[in-house]
Design brief:
Helix content is 6%, strand content 57%. It is globular and about 45 Å long. The model has no long low-confidence stretch (mean pLDDT 96).
Length: 155
C-alpha cells in the first residue's frame, strides 16, 4: 500500500490535481486545512480520502477508477466522526454508464432516508426508517491512518 497526496482529486478526469509532499499534507492535517490522500494498492488508486477540517470523505474506486461508493463523515465532537451520508453507484459493465444510484442520509438518532434512482427510467424511490447507527461512528484519523474510514461494511 502506498499513500500519495494532492490538493484534490478529479472524479471526472480520474486523476490527482497538484500533488503535494507528505510533509505538506502532514502540515495541512495538523492545521485542519484541506488535502487529499490517495491510497494505492497494486499500483491502482483504490481510495480517495478528502480531509477538510471537520469533514472527511472517502471515495471507493473500482478497477476502472469509477467511484462506486462514497462516505461523508462530519466531526461532531472533538476527534469523533459520524457518517452522515453515503452513496452507491451501479454501472453498466465496464462502461461509465450509471444504471442506478442509492443515497443514504443518516442522523445520529438513527433516522435514515434512502433514495434509489433508476438512471435509465428516472424513477426515484424514497424510504425512511430508523436503524442502528452504531457502525457510523469513527475517530478522526491521525495523519496517514485512514484504514478505519475505508471499511465498506460499517456494522
Amino acid at each position: 500500500m502506498e499513500i500519495r497526496y494532492c490538493e484534490r482529486w478529479s472524479l471526472f478526469y480520474k486523476e490527482a490535481h497538484k500533488y503535494i509532499s507528505e510533509d505538506e499534507a502532514c502540515k495541512r492535517h495538523a492545521e485542519r486545512k484541506s488535502y487529499t490522500a490517495i491510497i494505492v494498492e497494486n499500483d491502482v488508486e483504490k481510495y480517495i480520502i478528502n480531509v477538510a477540517g471537520a469533514w472527511v470523505s472517502v471515495y471507493f474506486l473500482d478497477k476502472y477508477k469509477r467511484n462506486y461508493l462514497y462516505y461523508s463523515f462530519k466531526e461532531v465532537e472533538k476527534n469523533k466522526l459520524f457518517l452522515n451520508e453515503s452513496s452507491y453507484w451501479e454501472y453498466d459493465g465496464e462502461s461509465e454508464k450509471v444504471l442506478s444510484t442509492m443515497h443514504f442520509t443518516f442522523l445520529q438518532d438513527g433516522n435514515t432516508i434512502m433514495s434509489e434512482k433508476n438512471e435509465i427510467t428516472g424513477e426515484v424511490v424514497q424510504k425512511e426508517g430508523n436503524f442502528s447507527v452504531e457502525g457510523n461512528w469513527d475517530v478522526y484519523p491521525a495523519f496517514a491512518r485512514y484504514n478505519s474510514l475505508c471499511r465498506e461494511q460499517r456494522e
